[in-house]
Structure formats: C-alpha cells, structure tokens
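Checklist before submission:
- one chain only
- standard amino acids only
- sequence pasted in full

Submission:
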Amino acid sequence: MAPSYVYRVLVTGLLPVIAALVYLEGQHYDPALIRFDQLQSESNAITRLIPEKLEGFRLLGTVRFYTKDNLYEYVNGHAEYFISAGFISLAVGEYTVSTSSSSEPDVIIDIYDMGKSIQAFGVISDESGGTLSDIDGGLTGFRSPAGMSFTNGQYYVKLSSFNDNVQLEAVAARIAGSTGEVSDPFPEFSRLPDIGIVAATRFIKEAYRGLDFLNNVIEREYIIDGSAIQVFIITKDSGDIDAIADSFMKYFQQSGIEFSSANKKNSTVYTVRDPYEGDWSLIVFPDSLVGLFGAADDAIIDKLLTNVSPL
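Returned file contents:
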C-alpha cells in the first residue's frame, strides 16, 4: 500500500475526531469572561450618562463605575442600604474649573441605577427625610447646602457643588436629558388628586403601619381645613394587588375588625372600623390599591375613584 494512500486514510478518519474536539471545546466557557462582558455593557450604559464636560468645567480623569461588589469603596457604611433598595450600578464624574490645574473637584455627579422608578424614589425619599419638592424642569427632588438630588425614572442622581458659580439647575436638566425623557418622572403622583395642601411625601419600603404584607408604599399627607389626612397607594409594580387585598381581608377577620364594602366605578370601596387606626377607607382598583386615613369624606373618595385610573 502506498504511503500517500495511508496518509489520506488517516487524515480522513481523523476529521470527525477533530470536529468533535472543536465542538466539545466550544462547550467550555469562562463564566468570568461572560460576567466581564455583562459588566462592560452595564458600565458603558451608565457611564455614558456622565457629560464629558460642563460649561466652564472639565472632567477630572475618567468616569468611575461601581457595582454591588465594590460599592463600599465609594459609600463605605452605606453600601448595604443601597443594595437592599435595589441598586444595580453607579457612575461618578468629578469636574474642576477648565482653567484650573487643581486635582480637587468643584462638582461631583453621582448617577445611581436603582433598577425601577419606585426604588429610585424610595432612596430619595429616605435621603430627603420625606421632604420632597418639584425642582426646575419638573423633576422630583430636594436641595441641600452642598447640592441637589433628584430622580428621573430608575435613576437617582446626586449633584454636589463646591463652587458658587455652578448652575446646578442646568446640570440637572442636562443629566435628565441624557437619562431619557420621562413624561411623568413618577406616574403614581399624578394619580393622587389635588385634595389639599401637600405636607409630606413618604416611601415606606416594608411593613407599612406595622402590616407585614404592605411593602413599597407611597404615602402623601395632606392638610385640609387644618386637619391632616394620609393617602397611600400601592401599584402592581410593587406586588400582586389581589393577593394584598386578600391579606387585608384575612387581617380584618383575624383581628376582629369590622368592615363593609360597596362597588363603585368598577372598583371595590371598603369602609373599615378600625379600633387601632380609627375609621378609614380602602379602595381596590384593578392595578392598584389606595387607602385613606384621617377622613371619612365621600367627596374625597369620589376624587380618588376618578383620579386613580389604571396606568
């Protein structure tokens, strides 16, 4: 048998083996490499929100990027709070005056991606102590001696300034534009009717009024004719509305709390005779649940029924 023929037979026989080896090798992947690709994608998405320069100021170095794994390096002692609130990633940009050679920042921009708008609002509510207002541009936030904080969709943004010449409102508008226009920064607010003077807005992450099934609750306190009332709202983004309503019914029955119900405008309105909280009302909508404490006013109930329409 000719040597060339033997060689061809051997090569032909090896081809399926080589193909199998190539296939098997392709099944082995490096999880660390895939994780790196994911982090790179997240980093690119959020760091692009940091402007390369501000009017009169230049970026110091590069934008810093943090994840759950290293957030403690930037907010040591407070990282667990952010992570428990839904934190995904953070981008930080520091700026100094364009004509300055200083390495100390005059402006710092922190952009936290909290995953959901309600989680971003939860953070800003806690950071502000519940005292929020509308700042220029229709953003929800608060001011402090050292800067300004606001939310835009899923992003919680902190602006810190150490220079009186910085126009924080302009910076806030620019950041809000880069994070994408949010027609209603927090749509739940628009569902709460104008029933009085807004005294406070709060976010309660867990066990609202001591009830372990009431989580991620938004509460607004109003002053009406000198008296305070509280309206709370939970949307389907925070939990299964039917399951929460069922938990209320079980709680009422187990606690011996009297209640009655009536169907109005495709929603169920419960009047609750609560020995602990006093008389209050609970309205179950298809996609949300609203409670009213401090008033048994049918006019307010009608306003809630009219305003709190499905998102």
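Reviewer check: Residues 41-178 form a domain with the Protein Transport Mog1p; Chain A fold (CATH 3.40.1000).
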